[in-house]
Amino acid sequence: MTVHAIPRPKKMRLRARGAPVLPFSLLVVLIAAAIGFVAYALWPNWPVAPVALDAPAVPVTVAGVLFDVPPAAIRAKVQRHAGPHERIDLAFLWPSLTPPQADPRPDTKPAVDLASDASQGPADASGRLFVTLAGLGAVLPPLERLRTIYPRYVAAQATAGPDGLAILQFRAGTPYEGEDLVYLAANPEQFFARCTRQGRVVPGTCIQERALDAAEITLRFPRDWLDDWRNTAAGLDRLVAQLRPTTEGK
C-alpha cells in the first residue's frame, strides 16, 4: 500500500508558523512590566534634598499621620526632609523641649533602635528626650498591651514607687526580663512606662509608648525622671502636642 502525504490545511500551517510568536511577545510584556514595577517601587527611595537645620518645622507623615517636626531635632540627615517616612528619630533637650544644637561630627544614623524596647542602651544623661515616630503596624496599641499582654508576664505583688506610682517586676524568662512596669496605682492608664533597672554603670531607662491612629510615638527618658513623674508626664504631653500640627482656624 502506498502511503500518501496528506497536506495540512492553510490555517494549520499558519498556526504552526505563528506558534512561537505568542510566548516571545508575552515574555517581552512581562519584562517590561517587571522593569516598570521596579522603577515604581524604587522611586520613593531616591534621594531627597535635606532641609537646613535652622529651617522651620517641616510637615512629615508616618503611617498616614501628620506631624510638624523641627529639622534640628531629626537625628539622621537622611530623614531630614518633608513628606512620608516609615519612621523618624528625634531628640529634644529637657525640660525646654527644644532641638539640641547641631553636632559638628559627621552625620550618622542612630546606633540604637529606639522603638524596640527600653533595654537597648541608656538614655543620654545630659538631659535629652529621645523620640521615635513609626507605624504601629500589626502590634497592639500600648493601652491594649497594658490591659492584655503585660499582666501575663509580671510578678504577683507590686511595690510602692514615688508619688503614687506602683512598680511591678517582669518575671525572668519573659520577653521583658530585666524590666519593670511602672504605673500610677490609682489609674494605670493615666501614666505607665516600661523601665530597665539601675545597673552598676548603666543607668535605668524608661520608654513610654502612645498610639496616634496608625502611628506610635515612643518616648525614651532616664528612669530618674520618675522621681518627678507628674512634671515629666506633663512635659511629654506638651511635646506630643507640639509635634501635632494645629487645625484651629482651618
Structural class: alpha+beta
Quaternary structure annotation = single chain
Strand order of the largest sheet: 4-5-11-10-9-8-7-6
Unreliable residue runs: 1-16, 42-47, 106-125
| Helical percentage | 10-25%
Give the termini distance in whole angstroms: 97 Å
Largest sheet: 8 strands, antiparallel
Determine the number of helices (DSSP H or I, runs of at least 4 residues): 4
Rg for CA atoms: 28 Å
> How many separate domains make up the residues?
2
So what's the overall shape? globular
Q: Average pLDDT value? A: 81
Strand content: 15-25%
Number of distinct beta strands: 11
What is the N-to-C succession of helices and strands? HHEEEEEHEEEEEEH
Molecular structure report:
With 250 residues, the protein is α+β, with helices and mostly antiparallel strands. 22% of the residues lie in helices and 25% in strands. It folds into two domains: 10-44; 58-104 and 112-243, no CATH class.
Which features would summarize this protein structure in a list?
alpha+beta, disordered N terminus, 11 strands, three-stranded mixed sheet, eight-stranded antiparallel sheet, 250 residues
How are the elements arranged and paired?
Blueprint: H1 10-18, H2 21-42, E1 58-62, E2 65-69, E3 83-85, E4 87-93, E5 128-135, H3 142-149, E6 159-160, E7 165-169, E8 179-184, E9 192-196, E10 205-212, E11 215-222, H4 229-243
Parallel strand pairs: 1-3
Antiparallel strand pairs: 1-2, 4-5, 5-11, 6-7, 7-8, 8-9, 9-10, 10-11
